[in-house]
Amino acid sequence: MGDVTQTWRAPAASLGQLFGSKTRLRLLSLFLEFRDRRFFGSELTTLVRVRHSAVQRELRHLEELGLVKRTDGPYRIFYQADPGFPLFAELQQLLKRGRAISARKIATKSGNLRVGAGG
Q1: pLDDT for 81-92, tens place per residue?
Q2: Domains of the chain, CATH where assigned
C-alpha cells in the first residue's frame, strides 16, 4: 500500500498552486468562462487590471499546471484554456457556484440597506 499522506497531499498542493493569487484567480475565471477564446498577453493585462509582469508570472504557472496552452503567433503569443485539463469541468462548476454565492451575498447586503432613511 502507498503512503496515504502522499496520496492526498499531491492534489491539495496542485489546488493551492492553482488559487495562489488574486491575479491567478482572475485569469482562471476568464479562461474558464471563455474557454474557446484565445487571448494575447497585453489584452489579459487590460482585462484583469493587473501589472503585465504579474500577469506573465501567473500565465507561466497556469501553463505549467496544464490549464492554459500557449501558442506563438507571428507577432503575438496567445493563451487559451486547455479543456483537456483533468479538472477543467470541475473548475468551471466551482466558478459557477462561486458566482452564485457572491450574487446571493450582494442581494442579501442590498436587502439590508435602507434607502431614504433620514438621520
Answers
A1: 999 999 899 988
A2: 4-111 (1.10.10.10)
